Amino acid sequence: MKLYFMKKEALDILKSNLDMVYNMYFTEKDNKWLWKVCGGDPFVEFKEIQDFQLAPIDSDMSKGEVEFANCKIIYQHLSFLTESQACDERLWAGLCHSVYYDYLRKRWDYDTKSPKTQKEAVSNIKSRFFFSGGTRAGLFRNSIAKCWWVGRNTYDPSNVANPFEKLDIIGSNDISSKISDIFYSNNFSANPVILNGIVKAFKNFKEENTQLSLKEHIRPTLQFLNAVGGGVVLDCLDEDEIADMLIDNIYGILQGDEQGVEIEEESEEYEDMDVDGNDISEEENSEDSVEEEYIVIGQKVNVRIKETDEQKTILVNYLPNSTKIPPLAKSLLGCWIGDEVPFQGKTYIIEAIQK
């Protein structure tokens, strides 16, 4: 089995002309059309390895299960790749257009369906067959590259019995969305301790036979962790501390609390206090407020209570000499300007985020 890089010239020709050739991905059963479009052989041989087969796309498995299985298969057989090689768009574009061309067409139903619109088809082909949105995005969007990188980040050679136990715990359901949330959107995979903490939290609920929803439980909790990471150096926490943080938040969601908030009787006691317990005036720093992408630990947030039109400034931080965050402040973590946050019968509208 020969592996191929795509020549830089061919890659540039294809990506710059996708508006005109995108339909070929749907109509052409093999890749011979590439020679005509690129004006010659678009590939350069990289390496010859022992043959291996991907999980069959036309089996009884769902496409998510197939992709999940291929995370293991692709990394196991291509684990010799260096990080530099595995970050090279030419490698993955070469594989997607050569040995895995048929697999990708079936994976995305290009063999049975027609493109809905040119714009949608071009955008999808760019992200599935090439890199789109930069190198980092490409690693977890390209149909083959993402399998290798997920396999690499979850493979544990010290676990002789099951080196892919972490991946098994993450599970095959909603695997594409999990790859986006865990490995791309939040970049937790860059730190194995954080990833281990996430997996340990998942394992806790798996052992309890508690079914978690990606949309209702996992995604909001990862957003919470990401928001906490804006004010706390997560790299300084161990995997048990990360796991406990996530488990507590998921339990809160399961119990019906807003975004995993712990509802306490004194929930509004610290609304207008800073980390030292001093009152924060509504005018303080209001003119210097700066919009952030979302609320993280350590920020002051200007809110308006929808029902009374009352203005408040809330410090999103830990209580003095404590590791707890006031419940209202905790409910604001990860939210954006303009969001409406329901809390104990009131609706808090986020109007500004201060540094």
TrEMBL record:
<feature type="region of interest" description="Disordered">
    <location>
        <begin position="268"/>
        <end position="291"/>
    </location>
</feature>
<protein>
    <recommendedName>
        <fullName>Transcription elongation factor GreA/GreB C-terminal domain-containing protein</fullName>
    </recommendedName>
</protein>
<dbReference type="Pfam" id="PF19866">
    <property type="entry name" value="DUF6339"/>
</dbReference>
<dbReference type="InterPro" id="IPR045920">
    <property type="entry name" value="DUF6339"/>
</dbReference>
